[in-house]
């Protein structure tokens, strides 16, 4: 994370302190956020881990349990926080988030308005992008959800960069105090076209609006509304394909077109008495293979971008 106070910045160089948030990494598909407490204990299938043993270690450390199992203590970066946060709503993931920040031209010092705080996944990355001198003003119509988001931003030390408001932006529009002050506006609403006129008034000349919608019908309606005050209207669908990389045993075989490698079954062939030199003559070998993940995350939504016209 990159909070507004540089002295509180979390990095791999800073050592873990009592009260810090750490990401406990058990394996690539099993991580959790834990707040360090001097007397706290984490218990999982790898054993018992005392928080007191974590204090003073740098982020990224490998720590062992009494059973010699181990975990890694990672800094709560926005990328990792997106993977472990509580899902109060559908969230944006890394591929969409990185595309949004780049295409909306969000840099340190920017003022960003967001409608649809939800679980705070995008908000967390927006805060890092505008730090240390920018600010993110995010709104949600659900008061309890907004309260949970504030707690999360306190926990991740981003409260100096993020202000959470409760408002029905879709029905009432953005507060008048933001007129002409926003560099970017992000909308995650069921009917974004109702908020687009208000968003246009908040943007500086040449500012950028982005709307996230899961259905193409929402995109079509939004684009029709955008035509009146915006230009350079574009819609994207970002698809992410992940790969599993692992070591596998292979056997050299020969076909009509020459040699190739084919995977061997997991069980090894029993060796006979005459196979004492098998290790020297065997063509078996271990290679690293990559294949698409069995469960790939597909469509999440459509991202529509538009630039506010300079009048």
Q: Main traits of this protein?
A:
seven-stranded mixed β-sheet; single chain; 8 helices; Rossmann fold; Vcp-like ATPase, Chain A, domain 2; alpha/beta; 3 domains; 311 residues; four-stranded antiparallel β-sheet
Task: Please describe what this structure looks like.
This protein is α/β, with parallel strands linked by helices. The protein folds into three domains: 6-76, Roll (Vcp-like ATPase, Chain A, domain 2), CATH 3.10.330.20; 80-239 and 299-308, Rossmann fold, CATH 3.40.50; 243-271 and 283-292, no CATH class. Helices cover 21% and strands 34% of the residues. The protein is built from eight helices and 16 strands. The protein has helices at 78-84, 94-103, 121-130, 143-155, 169-172, 196-202, 216-226, 278-281, and strands spanning 21-27, 30-35, 41-44, 47-50, 61-64, 70-74, 111-115, 135-140, 162-166, 182-187, 203-213, 230-237, 243-255, 258-263, 285-292, 302-308. The protein has a seven-stranded mixed β-sheet with strand order 9-8-7-10-11-16-12, with helices on both faces. Helix 6 links the parallel strand 10 (182-187) and strand 11 (203-213). The longest helix is centred in the middle third of the chain and has 13 residues, at 143-155. 31% of the residues are buried.
